[in-house]
């Protein structure tokens, strides 16, 4: 059997539950990379993904072009998203 890791970028959004339901139906567990600001905008959709067994990872807070930022700005983007994701995982009881 061939195994692969599937990643999906740019969650959460209105269609996240539909995507998650499809993946669950097919028995596919994925890593969904989230923008922090999208998790704040669509918290229920991000929670749904976690509750259904998906992994939600850090895709930065606002998904800027990192090549155009200073190192400190890059770190701030990552840390700000990590704070949002920590709150998300706590709400769902996975942290």
Tell me about this structure.
- By secondary structure, the protein is an alpha/beta fold.
- It is built from 4 helices and 3 strands; from the N terminus they run βαβααβα.
- The protein has helices spanning 16-26, 36-41, 43-51, 71-92; strands at 7-11, 31-34, 55-58.
- It has a 3-stranded parallel β-sheet.
- Helix 3 (43-51) packs across helix 4 (71-92).
- The longest helix has 22 residues, at 71-92.
- It is globular.
- The model has no long low-confidence stretch (mean pLDDT 95).
Short description:
The protein is built from four helices and three strands, in the order βαβααβα. The chain is α/β, with parallel strands linked by helices and 95 residues long.
Topology:
Layout lengths: L6 E5 L4 H11 L4 E4 L1 H6 L1 H9 L3 E4 L12 H22 L3
Parallel strand pairs: 1-2, 2-3
Total helices: the number is 4
Tell me the series of helices and strands, N- to C-terminal: EHEHHEH
**What characteristic shape results from the CA principal axes?**
globular
- Oligomer description: single chain
> What level of helicity do the residues show?
40-55%
How does the major sheet shape up? 3 strands, parallel
Question: Can you give keywords for this protein?
Answer:
95 residues; alpha/beta; three-stranded parallel beta sheet; 4 helices; 3 strands; globular
């Amino acid at each position: 059997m061939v195994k692969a890791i599937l990643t999906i970028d740019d969650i959460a959004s209105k269609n996240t539950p539909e995507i998650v339901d499809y993946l669950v139906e097919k028995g596919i567990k994925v890593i969904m990379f989230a923008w922090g600001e999208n998790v704040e905008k669509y918290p229920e959709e991000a929670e749904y993904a976690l509750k259904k067994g998906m992994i939600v990872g850090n895709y930065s807070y606002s998904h800027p072009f990192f090549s155009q930022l200073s190192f400190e700005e890059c770190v701030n983007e990552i840390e700000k998203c990590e704070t949002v994701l920590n709150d998300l995982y706590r709400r769902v009881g996975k942290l």
